[in-house]
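Re: How this chain folds, sequence and tokenised backbone to follow

Filed under: protein folding, tokenised backbone structure, sequence and structure records.

Contents: The amino acid chain and a row of whole-number tokens, matched residue for residue.

Body of memo: The sequence and its backbone structure tokens, given next.
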Amino acid sequence: MQLKPGLYRHYKGPEYRVFGVATHSETEEEVVFYQALYGEYGLWVRPLTMFLESVEVDGEQVPRFALVQTEPDLFSRS
């Protein structure tokens, strides 16, 4: 599955802007590069597998991050 750049909502409520997927230089693990859209607007990375996984909330499986709206890919190679 290819992760689309855009706005995502964390299952706890806050929104984030996903810029894209990067590759760790030593392990070659794929990580998601994203920014919090609240507080100090921090920049973060998280393993792609963790970003895409589901979590249990009140006995129900929900996505950790859900796509709200796609945005243009800032790092496109076109």
Remarks:
- The helical segments are 48-52.
- The CA atoms of residues 2 and 21 lie 9 Å apart.
